[in-house]
Write a structure and sequence with these properties.
The complex is a heterodimer of chains A (373) and B (141). Chain A has 373 residues and is α+β, with helices and mostly antiparallel strands. In chain A, 34% of the residues lie in helices and 27% in strands. In chain A, a hairpin with a 2-residue loop joins strand 10 (141-145) and strand 11. In chain A, helix 1 packs across helix 10. The longest helix of chain A is centred in the first third of the chain and has 18 residues, at 100-117. In chain A, 46% of the residues are buried. Chain B starts with a strand and ends with a helix. In chain B, a hairpin with a 2-residue loop joins strand 1 (2-3) and strand 2. Classes of the chains: A alpha+beta (373), B alpha+beta (141). Chains A and B meet through helix 4 and strand 10 of A and strand 9 and helix 5 of B. Strand 10 of chain A pairs parallel with strand 9 of chain B.
């Protein structure tokens, strides 16, 4: 294909920020989306259930939207202080490497370069966390939508840890307190690192340039169709002209760099009615009771992944209520919330590799032996 | 048999996108390959179409999630789903632990079996080895 659509949309309604990449993926339209949400919301990953992850009542009272996406990653709280970056590429595009780790490594490289360009020592913690000094500054999920592979990431300009702590379902006050502390230690932002974050326009430009360097040059608005290969003639006609979507804003086409060709200038045309229509179709599906009511992966414990290899977990098993903090994949601390003091078999878990099944097995075995103290 | 690092039972048929099919009387059992589970990492969730749904060769019949990534599983054959492995709901990691055994995903009553089996890879053939080697090299890049 010759063109990668760039949807550089300053602000969108919260639901549209999620629907847009699902729609693009289903339509097979390759695109880079940059946007921010107008309203705050919580978004859980495909393998998660909203009722297990989110304090739904709190969100309802505070008018915080709740969504379950079709791609991976954990629960995220998204508000206007994040630049959302979504990349949609057809799986048969030769630029798309095989394997999720290769995919994340390649397509997060522009994000790493943005941070590095701002003077931060950003590193990728595989598969897809971007860290600065060990703290997460971009959260990412990915997956296949239609015939496309999708990367959804963000740049944290600021982050409301209190809100994040509040929207997550917590089994008790101790868990919530520990969660807040853990988030404080494991999340950072451009504001925290730089004092004054760069203007949004600068961030957007840096991201655009990064992906243009990787995938193709920016061009002035033009008439070239933002089409993926394999699109039918009907689709080509449908997308070429394009109608104007409600509140349409400029977007740009990125043309794949050709040998001997320099970077072009930015180009654009309105977001097409076709994408808007597909977003409405996706809405019917992804806001259905069946989709949002999905219980997610079954778990007998509460686990929040704060960043790659760092977790906060509460087990309620074999007469104990264990609150574990996991750091770099190992159990760093254990507290039995039903018994004051450090004594007990559970203190022997400290230093072990984190494996939930093993912890449950140990607890059950000890309880069976009557040595649970 | 082993090809490279991957278990590849000889009695199975293999789809290019790493699902397998085993003919079991009038039904076909379907799952994902050892290669697929190794590339996916620890599997956190599996969702398939339901009993009674029709599936088509080369079209997705399920989604497999390893937490950060969700991928579609393409069907090796066409037919009607007659059983879904309910154990995967509680223990998706069975696909990691036993991709060709307890980690099977669906059973299908095939609609065009012989023609479609002919389009799948068989271990021991040059085509199979070339395909899996190419996939291995592609993913290891």
């Amino acid at each position: 294909m010759d063109f990668l659509l760039l949807l550089d949309i300053p602000r969108m309604r919260w639901d549209a920020t999620q629907l847009v990449y699902h729609a693009l993926g289903r339509l097979g339209i390759e695109a880079l989306v940059l946007t921010r949400t107008i309203e705050p919301y919580v978004c859980v990953g495909f393998s998660q259930g909203i009722s297990a992850e989110v304090d739904i009542e709190y969100c309802r009272r505070n008018r915080i939207g709740v969504f379950r996406r079709e791609i991976g990653g954990g629960t995220v709280f998204i508000d206007k202080n994040q630049l959302l970056v979504q990349l949609v590429l057809r799986r048969d595009n030769p630029a798309v490497p095989a394997g999720q780790n290769n995919f994340f490594r390649k397509f997060l490289s522009p994000i790493l370069e943005v941070y590095r360009g701002l003077g931060l020592e950003a590193e990728l913690r595989p598969p897809c966390d971007v860290l600065v000094k060990g703290r997460k500054i971009s959260g990412t999920g990915g997956g296949e939508v239609g015939e496309c592979a999708v990367l959804a990431t963000n740049l944290l300009v600021d982050f409301n840890i209190d809100r994040m702590t509040r929207v997550l379902r917590c089994p008790g006050v101790e868990f919530r307190r520990a969660l807040r502390n853990s988030l404080e230690r494991n999340i950072t932002t451009l504001r925290a690192e730089l004092g004054t974050p760069p203007p949004w326009s600068v961030l957007r430009r840096l991201v655009r340039e990064g992906y243009a360097n990787l995938l193709g040059a920016l061009e002035e608005p033009g008439s070239a169709p933002p089409l993926a290969p394999g699109g039918t003639g009907t689709e080509r006609r449908k997308y070429r002209g394009g109608g104007r979507m409600r509140g349409a804003i400029p977007f740009y086409q990125i043309r794949r760099r050709k040998s001997g060709e320099g970077d072009g200038a930015a180009g654009g045309s309105p977001l097409t009615e076709a994408i808007a229509e597909e977003m409405e179709r996706v809405r019917m599906e992804l806001f259905s009771k069946k989709w949002l009511g999905d219980q997610g992966a079954k778990k007998s414990f509460r686990e929040v992944k704060v960043r790659e290899l760092n977790y906060l977990v509460q087990f309620d098993c074999a007469g104990t209520e264990l609150l574990l903090e996991v750091v770099e994949g190992r159990i760093a601390s254990v507290k039995n919330l039903r018994r004051a003091g450090p004594e007990g078999w559970w203190s022997g878990l400290v230093g072990l590799d984190y494996c939930p099944e093993e912890i449950i097995n140990i607890a059950t075995r000890i309880a069976g032996n009557g040595s649970g103290r | 048999m082993k090809v490279l690092d991957y278990d590849c039972p000889e009695e199975l048929y293999y789809h290019k996108d790493h699902a397998w099919a085993r003919v079991d009387g009038e039904l076909v059992v379907i799952g994902v390959t050892d290669f697929a589970q190794k590339m996916a990492g620890t599997i956190k969730r599996i969702v398939t179409l339901e009993v009674g749904d029709e599936i088509e060769q080369d079209k997705p019949f399920g989604t497999l999630s390893s937490g950060k990534w969700t991928g579609k599983v393409q069907s090796p054959i066409s037919g009607e789903i007659v059983e879904v492995n309910a154990a995967l709901e509680e223990r998706p990691k069975l696909v990691n632990d036993s991709p060709y055994g307890e980690g099977w995903m669906i059973k299908v009553r095939p609609s065009n079996l012989q023609d479609e089996l002919a389009r799948l890879y068989r271990p021991g053939t040059e085509a199979f080895t070339n395909w899996l080697t190419a996939e291995h090299n592609k993913y290891k890049k």
